[in-house]
Specification:
The complex is a heterodimer. Chain A is an alpha+beta fold. Chain A has helices spanning 7-31, 35-38, 64-79, 167-175, 180-208, 210-233, 288-303, 311-314, 338-353, 419-425, 534-543, 548-555, and strands spanning 43-49, 54-57, 90-93, 106-115, 118-128, 157-161, 164-165, 238-248, 254-265, 268-272, 317-320, 371-378, 383-390, 428-435, 451-457, 462-467, 488-492, 499-500, 508-510, 515-519. Chain A folds into 2 domains: 7-226, no CATH class; 362-562, no CATH class. In chain A, a hairpin with a 2-residue loop joins strand 9 (254-265) and strand 10 (268-272). Helices cover 32% and strands 28% of the residues of chain B. The chains are: A alpha+beta, B alpha+beta.
Chain lengths: 562, 683
């Protein structure tokens, strides 16, 4: 433990460092072109020390970006090292296999910050570009089976050398993506965020001396490590295992096991994914650092949600996964849809830790990042449109309360598009948007409910594509809680007759007489349904979230006579 | 005529700023608040003023800032609301934007919807994006709605239909039928509460409004009756969240407009003080017992924001754009799990209050730190009548000091450093992150605790100048006295900015102008006192968020495509650091704000006679400006400082409602209107 700085001075320094990452975060949000960055906030900022160890991450960062930054910095220190860097250099990378990325649309930048010629640290950022090339627009569709189909692979290279743009590299990057003008804007937004961060860090170093900042970096990591190890000590020692099955990879492989064993001993915790299935043909594989991100997310959520994201967290946890499995895929596995798999890995981790931390555990959530894509030609404006949405579902039942209904879960938290925005922009009618009756698993505290959305094209033929998980395997309950309902895609209408679609449907045509019905999974309950209170059952019935038949079957509840 | 009275109800005190617009006489008054029925404190204060020989028959206006709505929300004491929505959208209120409030927390939830599912009903009807009727509202649907609402036992009703803001026919038909069948039911419809695009935010706002209608109705009913008896000639104005007053009738219809009005009055008062000192660009720092509000003012105007949260519920509503941080005099210092010290957002509140209040508090607060360092007087606020207990303050800080291995003074100094850092962050958010350099602004601290901390905050931001108004502790009441009548009108139509739509935009602006004129006529505002302000919410096609673009009268009367585009580009450049002149742009909302100027005081009252030269200190006491050693510091009585007088830091200036601290080397003088103008020493 570094004790050079007292807890007051350190708090003030950390506050200033957070101001820097937050300011750079806003700058990137505002200057970017990609909708993913501007609206969905799929980006993050980090400061590292001179060895590339993460010190501070911006407040709103997504969990999956944590390990991605870490992966890039490790590669950077290995490939270049301090002696090879000069002021004004900016490095760029995205490749999951040689540059620590998690999927290709996430482009990482890192800029060394020097003070008086001495390396103080790095300012890094990650941003999800709307397109990174490859076989489909947007670079995110299912049906891709190797990384080469998913877009341009950028190893770790210099985008700026001593403050000068390396034009050759930039030309190469832009030639390989759709709408290069917009991507140029995204790159410059990332560059601006790096430079702003480096400038602010320099200003801070003038105010406080570089050596004091270096001490602060070390102390911040030490304190986070101590804080986390303190929490781990409260976890009962033991070995905890859990396995669940991924529905499928959309290309023929089904029921792929995800397994983890967690070993807790004193202040140490280790995760081993041995037993997890082999990497798949479809693009739902994860690289190792995506699996690490899932572990860090679960640890924070179950032990200490406000734990700062920095290297102190990372170095306190041991993680291993056999090479060539879907949580540690090797080249050339396809990975674009890794977010769906991450959701399932999170459930498995919670399932294992539930045995040790019953009060912090929750039932399985909707386990997916259900995606619906509508594509067609808008007769109103004579133009082609593409409307993509990810829908939430159930969040698992909890120790003291029901799960949440109709929310984005775990590693994702992006908002929906208003119905009035959808209908003003696209020739679609959203007929309904609500919770699905009886979809939350029964329990003392029931699981959250899935969402049903019904969409009909107006005056034209459209095509529907989608991506779902937990459409086959129900989200399990814990400690006696019952599973929630699976999700489903279907079409209602004369030509389709309430036909169930595949869970990863691709280009399904439908017309104004048909409506696409998207139903997302619910979530598992917590505890024995027999212990559910009469008041809660009466409310379930009164509000109509659950039918009388369901309540009778699962709880033996008799509705009051009116 | 006449006296103008501004009354601001705070958690502890109800403040009065009373001004005679004939003689220029100013009276300030405070009376303890009565939280169970806030009106009683207002009436108490008025009676106290009357016994101080204020002729109540000569009171022409009483401007009132009320916390009734805010408190009702905090305590969940609103009405029993029923809700009518378009068929298929019963759960919209619950799903909202489908996001969680905390990324990493399994436990944190958005608050429970204010209308339980069994009182949420669906009407078979549907309007489309262009206002056309896709599915008509038939009599059967109306009858069903009447039955359902009646059977629910609700005392108020919110109606919010998809695209009801474009075509309000169905909302109005439902209201008419329901009002006829249930005459006592209070009804809020979305096309009147906030007729704007985006169904969930409009719905949430309409529901909140409905929820607050019963309590606001009964509060204002009683209040007006009493007031009429006491002050037969006074008009009552109710403060709203955007700054500016509305009639009590309007407040009963739209109580949600008062829910964020607390900070607005202070900002209006701050603008008045800044205007008197001729300082157009200021950043306000309003620090009270539990929190600090900061606001950026350019050219004597505060920005207006539309998307806000109240008690965890989103609202779409014009409000002064303040950023709040949990940093006040009562904020508690504590240790995070990693051993770092934090201050706030937990507060000791009014009860038990800081340890030094001697009312049973034991945890160390910001006020305890200020007292231990000699910044607050052990005698308490001048005229406050409440001595502060230094020993209790020291005792509260002792455990932290021991844990840190520091002296109590150094610990206290650290507490103040952390609280200043928190406020600095809040100010950076409203300045640097929106393209403004705080060094170009004057810091204007107010509230009981603002002037205590302002020099630390200003120095950390590189701000070189401060303005401390005459009565910083009751600036909100002053803001009420100088508030005008205000009303907003909006038309929400997504319209591409192309030559073919300019006629539509012009027609909509004309429509808005006429609505504003009708309102002026009805409120009997003289022609010379009418002001209309126009703005458009614009964005690039494909964006999800709009930027506000202000138009002057000429631009609004004859809108020109090139001018509108240029103004949008400039706004985009300022906010986002770039613009693309080739990308298509659209207008989402068109707005008019109508301001009816009311008689207002002149440039504030000059306290005492003009003096010159150095101010004379009352006495000296040791004050700590770092954690090492105190300085013998002159203490001044602000009431004795005359315009033109100057003094230099280190200094503490005490007055009835606030304490100002100046660091070594800071220079200060009193301007003609009684403001303190401080020039900060450079580091």
């Amino acid at each position: 433990m570094t004790d050079a700085l007292d807890p007051i001075t350190l708090e003030i320094l950390r506050n200033s460092l957070r101001s820097i990452t937050d300011e750079a975060y806003i700058a990137l949000t505002k200057a970017a072109y990609s909708t993913n960055i501007k609206e969905r906030r799929d980006h993050s900022i980090a400061l590292t020390d001179a060895k590339g160890r993460l010190v501070v991450q911006s407040e709103n960062s997504l969990p999956i970006h944590l390990a991605s930054m870490l992966g890039m910095m490790e590669q950077l220190m290995e490939k270049y090292g301090e002696e090879d860097m000069v002021e004004g250099d900016i490095f760029v990378a995205n490749d999951p296999y040689v540059a620590g990325g998690t999927h290709l649309p996430d482009v990482n930048l890192a800029m060394p910050a020097f003070v008086d010629g001495k390396l103080l640290g790095f300012v890094c950022n990650i941003a999800h570009h709307a397109d990174i090339g490859g076989m489909t627009p947007g670079s995110m569709a299912g049906g891709m089976s190797e990384i080469y189909q998913e877009g341009l692979r950028i190893p770790l290279v210099r985008l700026f050398r001593g403050g000068e743009l390396v034009q050759d590299i930039f030309d190469l990057l832009l030639l390989n993506v759709r709408v290069p003008n917009e991507r140029r804007g995204d790159y410059f937004a990332q560059v601006a965020a790096c430079r702003l961060g480096a400038r602010r860090l320099g200003e801070m170093a003038q105010r406080y001396e570089p050596a004091m900042l270096a001490d602060a970096f070390a102390a911040i990591m030490d304190r986070t490590e101590a804080r986390l190890r303190d929490s781990i000590r409260d976890v009962p020692d033991g070995s905890y295992e859990f396995t669940d099955l991924l529905d499928n990879d959309g290309m023929g492989t089904v029921d792929i096991p995800i397994s983890v064993r967690v070993d807790v001993s004193g202040e140490n915790i280790a995760f081993d994914f041995a037993g997890t299935g082999a990497q798949m043909k479809g693009n739902f594989n994860m690289t190792f650092n995506a699996a690490q991100s899932a572990v860090y997310y679960v640890l924070k959520a179950m032990l200490d949600p406000d734990l700062p994201n920095n290297h102190g967290l990372i170095r306190s946890v041991e993680i291993s996964a056999p090479l060539g499995t879907l949580v540690n895929a090797v080249h050339p596995a396809a990975v674009a849809g890794r977010a769906n798999t991450s959701q399932r890995v999170v459930d498995v981790l919670i399932g294992a830790l539930a045995q040790a931390l019953p009060e912090q555990a929750v039932g399985a959530a909707n386990g997916a990042n259900v995606t619906a894509v509508f594509f067609g030609h808008d007769p109103r404006h004579d133009r082609t449109y593409l409307y993509l949405e990810t829908l939430g579902g159930g969040f698992g039942g909890r120790f003291t309360k029901d799960g949440k209904d109709g929310v984005q879960v775990h590693i994702t938290n992006t908002s929906n598009l208003p119905v009035e925005a959808i209908e003003a922009e696209y020739p679609l009618l959203v007929e309904s948007y609500g919770l699905i009756e009886d979809s939350g698993g029964a329990g003392k505290y029931r699981g959250g409910m899935g969402i049903r959305r019904v969409v009909r094209p107006i005056g034209h033929e459209a095509v529907f594509s989608g991506m779902g998980e937990r459409f086959a395997h129900r989200p399990w309950g814990i400690f006696g809680g019952q599973p929630g309902e699976t999700g489903r895609f279907s079409i209602q209408g004369p030509s389709h007759n309430d036909e169930t679609l595949p869970d990863k449907p691709n280009h399904v045509p439908f017309g104004p007489d048909d409506a696409v019905v998207i139903e997302t999974p619910g979530a598992g309950g917590y505890g024995d349904p027999a212990e559910r209170s009469e008041d809660a059952l009466a409310a379930d019935y009164r509000g109509g979230k659950f039918s009388a038949a369901y309540l009778r079957k699962h709880y033996g509840f008799e509705p009051p006579a009116d | 005529m006449s006296w103008i009275i501004g009354v601001d109800v705070g958690g502890t005190f109800t403040d009065f700023h009373v001004y005679d617009d004939e003689s220029g006489e100013l009276r300030l008054h405070k009376t303890p608040s009565t939280p169970d029925n806030p009106a009683r404190a207002v009436l108490n204060g008025i009676n106290e003023l009357a016994s101080g020989e204020l002729d109540l028959a000569r009171v022409g206006r009483l401007s009132h800032g009320t916390t009734v709505a805010t408190n009702a929300l905090i305590q969940r004491r609103g009405g029993k609301v029923a809700l009518l929505v378009t068929e298929g959208f019963r759960d919209l209120l619950e799903i909202g934007r489908q996001i969680r409030p905390h990324m990493f927390s399994f436990q944190q939830d958005h608050p429970t919807p204010l209308v339980p599912r069994e009182r949420r009903f669906e009407a078979a009807e549907r309007i489309l994006y262009d206002g056309s009727v896709h599915r008509p509202l038939d009599q059967g649907a109306i009858d069903r709605a009447v039955d359902q609402v009646r059977d629910s036992g609700a005392d108020c009703l919110a109606i919010c239909l998809i695209f009801g803001f474009i075509n309000p026919d169905h909302e109005r038909q439902l209201r008419q039928a329901l009002q006829a069948a249930l005459p006592d039911l209070r009804i809020s419809i979305s096309s009147e509460v906030q007729p704007e695009f985006r169904e969930y935010e409009r719905l949430s706002t309409t529901v909140l409004n409905s929820y607050l209608q019963p309590i606001m109705g009964s509060y204002l009913g009683e209040f007006e009756d009493e007031l009429t008896k006491l002050m037969p000639n006074a008009n009552l104005g109710i403060n709203q969240s955007a700054g500016g007053l509305m009639t009590p009738e309007r407040a009963r219809q739209l109580p949600i407009r008062t829910a964020l009005s607390g900070p607005a009055a202070g900002v209006v008062g701050a603008i008045d003080a800044a205007r008197a000192a001729d300082l157009a660009n200021v950043i306000t720092l309003d620090m009270g017992g539990t929190s600090a509000d900061v606001c950026l003012i350019r050219d004597f105007e505060a920005d207006v924001a539309y998307d806000r949260w109240i008690e965890g519920y989103p609202v779409r509503l014009a409000s002064v754009d303040v950023n709040a941080v949990g940093a006040g005099g009562g904020s508690i210092a504590w240790f995070e799990r990693d051993g770092l010290m934090k201050v706030g957002p937990q507060s000791a509140g009014a009860v038990p209050g800081p340890a030094c209040y001697g009312q049973g508090g034991t945890e160390p607060t910001v006020s305890d730190a200020n007292l231990v360092l000699g910044r607050l007087s052990p005698r308490g606020l001048l005229g406050g009548g409440m001595a502060l207990d230094v020993a209790a303050g020291r005792a509260s800080l002792a455990p932290a000091a021991e844990r840190l291995g520091m002296s109590i003074e150094r610990t206290a100094h650290g507490v103040l450093g952390i609280v200043a850092a928190n406020m600095v962050r809040a100010i950076r958010t409203i300045s640097v992150e929106r393209g403004h350099d705080p060094r170009d602004f004057v810091l204007l601290p107010f509230g009981g605790a603002g002037p205590l901390h302002a020099v630390d905050v200003a120095r950390a931001l590189g701000i070189s100048r401060m303005l401390i108004p005459a009565a910083p502790g009751i600036l909100c009441a002053r803001g009420l006295v100088v508030s005008d009548l205000r009303e907003g009108f909006v038309i929400s139509r997504v319209t591409p900015l192309v030559p073919e739509t300019m006629a539509d935009i012009a027609a909509n602006l004309t429509d808005l102008r006429q609505r504003a004129e009708t309102w002026f006529d009805r409120t009997e505002i003289g022609v010379d006192d009418r002001q209309t302000m126009y703005s458009l919410d614009m964005r690039y096609i494909g964006q999800n968020y709009e930027l506000q673009v202000d138009l002057d009268n000429g631009e609004a009367q004859q809108p020109d495509l090139a001018v509108l585009a240029e103004k949008f580009f400039a706004a985009h450049e300022r906010n986002y650091g770039y613009h693309n002149p080739d990308d298509p742009v659209e207008v989402v909302n068109l707005r008019v704000t109508a301001v009816g100027h009311l008689a207002r005081p002149g440039d504030g009252a000059a306290p005492g006679s003009a003096g010159a030269g150095a101010a004379v200190a009352e006495y000296e006491r040791p004050v700590w400006f770092d954690g090492e050693a105190p300085l013998d510091t002159p203490i001044y009585d602000r009431a004795k400082l005359a315009p033109g007088q100057a003094l230099a830091g280190p200094a503490v200036i005490e007055q009835l409602d606030a304490t100002t601290v100046l660091g070594p080397g800071d220079k200060c003088h009193v301007d003609d209107t009684g403001n303190l103008i401080v020039e900060l020493a450079n580091d």
